[in-house]
Amino acid sequence: MGSKPPADPAYPGVLQKICAKVVIAGPLAVGKTSMIRALSEIKPLTTEETMTRAAADADSLADVQDKTTTTVASDFGRRTLDDKDGGLVLYLYGTPGQKRFRPLWRDISRGALGALVLVDSRRLGDSFEVMDMIEEQGLSYAVAFNKFPDSPDFHVDALRDALDLAPATPLVTCDARDTASSLDALIALVEHLLADPSIPEGSPC
Q1: CB-based contacts of 193: which residues, under 8 Å, 6+ apart?
Q2: CA angle in degrees (0–180, nearest 5) for 65-43-50
Q3: Residue 10: pLDDT above 60?
Q4: Fewest C-beta in 10 Å: which of 45, 53, 132, 144?
Q5: For the chain, how are helix, strand and coil distributed in percent, rounded to 5?
Q6: What is the CATH number of the domain that holds 105?
Q7: Half-sphere exposure of 54 (CA within 13 A, CB side)
Q8: Does a structural domain hold residue 171?
């Protein structure tokens, strides 16, 4: 991933873009769909549906009682990071946050180069299972705290300790509704992946 993209044989001297799959993960109601909507340069595909009584009984909505819709399959968007070396096209896959979709989560994450984990500081405990799944898949990841209006104001070191993150794992804050803020979080993940020589390269687009 850190090497220079190959030249496009159809256009000598023009560098090809590199395509890579990235997972946007996190527990229920953490802002994954909002982030993909904010980031995507194309009209995003979303699979949000109205939450029914059965879903409300199955999924814990503690501290998020105002949530009325939920992702039932996967969200999808695309974001191009252009640079002088041809650029990187990221295919963004948002995962459902409910435990019962764990088999689907494994399918979605297959072939991804890394993951951006969204965390809600009001519900830190909900994030551990997601990070466990990512680590089981062998994916490198970065963590982004999505700040809500009533989010506790924790120091970043306290948040890192609470999540038991490795020193090299990036930890940033963001507003998942805001494009610039979400892009900063995505770039933190990409820079983390670029710095790891064990991460395979993406594919020419």
Answers
A1: 1, 113, 114, 140, 199
A2: 25
A3: no
A4: 53
A5: 30, 25, 45
A6: 3.40.50.300
A7: 1
A8: yes
Establish if 11 belongs to a structural domain.
no
Residues in the chain: 205
92 near 24, Cβ under 8 Å? yes
CA angle in degrees (0–180, nearest 5) for 180-112-19: 65
Tens digit of pLDDT for each residue in 109-150? 999 999 999 999 999 999 999 999 899 889 999 999 999 988
- Sequence-ordered alpha helix ranges (H) in 18-64: 32-39, 53-58
> Of all helices (H) and strands (E), which one includes residue 141?
strand 140-146
Rounded to 5 degrees, φ, ψ at 179 are -65, -50
What is the number of structural domains in the chain?
1
Tokens of 35: 């982030």
